Amino acid sequence: MKKGQQWVMQEGPYILLDDIHTGIGYLSHAARDVSSETVNFMIRVGKGLVYLCITPRLAEKLHLREIGDTSIQNDKSVTVSIDHKDTTTGISASERAHTIKACVQPEVKPDDFQRPGHIFPIISKDILMLDRAGVAEAAVLTASYFSSEPCAYACEILDNTGRIADKKTINEIKKKYGLPLITFSELISMQYEETNWLKVVNKKSVGNAHECWMYTVRNTLENRDCTLYIKKDMIKPEHIIFYQACEVGDILGTSQCSCEFHFADYYHQLCLHEIDALVVESKKESINTKEVAETVKNQMKTLVKKLAVENELQIANS
């Protein structure tokens, strides 16, 4: 079970807290599990507007387009509000739940809804929290642990005076109703960890006796490539070297640098089975945090293990 699933696998709603921009708390839950009781709970306890957080794909399917000035940076991409065509006023908790539930049915069509209505769809960005850290992205990301069609409903938490609830009030609600609380920061970290940033874009045989595989690996997070070298008979990668290319030592062939070893040294060690894999990176400065860089490094180690399994199968079948 993934970390996010441990947080949100429950029958009732959970709290999403924007600890990055606004400090606003939201009650949220997956649309597929909507009920009139939960909608009523959100209205009664949250007191804010009830949103339907949807993916761009679902928005296109339902012909829901963003309204307002799209040239202005905003934390919400709001569409025209909707009610299901079978509702009467559309405002009751049961009818709002019916509208929400209808949106995630496989056979749903644009003309199943009246516009305007009492449910307010907001469209998430394609890559969610890594593109824009808003409530739509946070709600869709958490809902993705429940369904292949991630869609969630959410409601701002207000205090008893009608103002935006502060952190103390949000924590009181959390404690009173036993609700999990997930921060936007946690969701961003989680998405960084769980997104596969590496893609093999090229592979060729290299070496005097063609004894090594050379892979070009695209780091899509930083939009740059690195080169991975492994021996063709490598099956248990335990010693992986990450080496930043040194122009002085590698290209000019001088020792006027602080590097202990250069590419030729490491490649020689690889051929002698003293190391199992060699990852050569450029010295381009990373724009991301050490935590993110470590995530990419761990993914590279996982990739090397996967390629080792492929090597083993190829050797066994040869």
TrEMBL record:
Which GO terms fall under molecular function for this chain's record? Answer: 3,4-dihydroxy-2-butanone-4-phosphate synthase activity; hydrolase activity; metal ion binding
> Which GO BP terms, alphabetically?
riboflavin biosynthetic process
Database matches in Gene3D superfamilies: DHBP synthase (3.90.870.10)
Kindly tell me the pathway this chain contributes to.
Cofactor biosynthesis; riboflavin biosynthesis; 2-hydroxy-3-oxobutyl phosphate from D-ribulose 5-phosphate: step 1/1
Quick check: keyword Hydrolase in the entry?
yes
- Tagged with keyword ATP-binding: no
A Pfam family for this UniProt protein? DHBP_synthase
Which GO cellular component terms are attached?
Answer: cytosol
What Enzyme Commission number(s) appear in the record?
4.1.99.12
Q: Which UniProt keywords apply?
A: Hydrolase, Metal-binding, Riboflavin biosynthesis
Q: Which InterPro entries match?
A: DHBP_synth_RibB-like_a/b_dom, DHBP_synthase_RibB
Q: What does this protein do?
A: Catalyzes the conversion of D-ribulose 5-phosphate to formate and 3,4-dihydroxy-2-butanone 4-phosphate.
Which protein is depicted? 3,4-dihydroxy-2-butanone-4-phosphate synthase
What's the source species for this entry? Answer: Alteribacillus persepolensis
